[in-house]
């Protein structure tokens, strides 16, 4: 039972355009969401997070949007750069009830010139 | 500052062999965890620890043992390796009390079980 789903295994975007990565979740207890970025042969690195009390969080070129009613979050990267090419994982946690972080299956983003 | 280190980077085992994947962090983090990454499955939590002497199971704990005798180290033991345990293993740490604080991941151990 996949509680955090990233239905697009891959995404290809031209440099300078917007990249939109999507994530859906099923557990209504989740109240904290994170995005991680992973390059080949390296461990994931934290990118951006959002609490369920917000619907948007921005950090430079990266913005995460949360739609609680739809149990959906998205990561926007504007403008996309070739260095953004990586696998992106969304993750979720129910902070009040558990210490566990549940990850999605990942989306491979390729930004081409 | 080394962050989170994992050894070995690569390992090949035969079915039934045992081994320990090592993980160490030098950030004085209370929370440490082990994940495995498989194609199409994302990162799945195996075991985690909220401090020395305290461990708990994640999503896929079967076939793995852990212990936490010090804040710095969190080894993962495979008692009798099986081909289904072929995967890339990541160790992570973060400050307590919230495990959702930024987790720092190690570079991973790629394990193949024949």
Walkthrough of the structure:
The complex is a heterodimer of chains A (113) and B (114). By secondary structure, chain A is mainly β. Chain A contains no helices and 11 strands. In chain A, the strands form 2 sheets. In chain A, strands 2, 4, 5, 9, 10 and 11 form a 6-stranded mixed β-sheet that branches. The mean pLDDT of chain A is 93. Chain B is built from no helices and 11 strands. Chain B is mainly β and 114 residues long.
Distance between the termini of chain B: 36 Å
Evaluate the radius of gyration of chain A.
Answer: 13 Å
- Count of DSSP strands of chain B: 11
β-strand number of chain A: 11
- Structural class of chain A, by secondary structure, is mainly beta
Helix count of chain A equals 0
Average pLDDT of chain B: 92
Helix content of chain A: under 10%
Strand content of chain B: over 45%
Oligomer: heterodimer
Give start-end ranges of low-pLDDT stretches of chain A.
Answer: none
The averaged pLDDT of chain A comes out at 93
Helix content of chain B: under 10%
| Helix-strand string of chain A | EEEEEEEEEEE
How are the elements arranged and paired?
The complex is a heterodimer of chains A (113) and B (114).
Chain A: E1 4-5, E2 10-14, E3 19-25, E4 32-38, E5 45-51, E6 56-59, E7 62-67, E8 72-77, E9 86-93, E10 102-103, E11 107-112
Parallel strand pairs in A: 2-11
Antiparallel strand pairs in A: 1-3, 3-8, 4-5, 4-9, 6-7, 7-8, 9-10, 9-11
Chain B: E1 4-7, E2 10-13, E3 19-25, E4 31-38, E5 42-51, E6 54-57, E7 64-66, E8 76-78, E9 87-94, E10 104-105, E11 109-113
Parallel strand pairs in B: 2-11
Antiparallel strand pairs in B: 1-3, 3-8, 4-5, 4-9, 5-6, 7-8, 9-10, 9-11
């Amino acid at each position: 039972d996949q509680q955090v789903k990233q239905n697009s295994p891959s995404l290809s975007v031209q440099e300078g355009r917007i990249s939109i990565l999507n994530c859906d979740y099923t557990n209504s207890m989740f109240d904290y969401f994170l995005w991680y970025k992973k390059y080949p042969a390296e461990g994931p690195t934290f990118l951006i997070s959002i609490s369920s009390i917000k619907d948007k969080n921005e950090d430079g070129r990266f913005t995460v949007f949360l739609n609680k009613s739809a149990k959906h979050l998205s990561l926007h990267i504007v403008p996309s750069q070739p260095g953004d090419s990586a696998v992106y994982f969304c993750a979720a946690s129910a902070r009040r009830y558990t210490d566990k972080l549940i990850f999605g299956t990942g989306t491979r983003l390729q930004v081409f010139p | 500052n080394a962050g989170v280190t994992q050894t070995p980077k690569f390992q090949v085992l035969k079915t039934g062999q045992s081994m320990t994947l090592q993980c160490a962090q030098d950030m004085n983090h209370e929370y440490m965890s082990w994940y495995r990454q498989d194609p199409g499955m994302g990162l799945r939590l195996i075991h985690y620890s909220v401090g020395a002497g305290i461990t708990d199971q994640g999503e896929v704990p079967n076939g793995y043992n852990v212990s936490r005798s010090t804040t710095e180290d969190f080894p993962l033991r495979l008692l009798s390796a099986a081909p289904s345990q072929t995967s890339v293993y990541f160790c992570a740490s973060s400050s307590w009390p919230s495990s959702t604080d930024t987790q720092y991941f190690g570079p991973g151990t790629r394990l193949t079980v024949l």
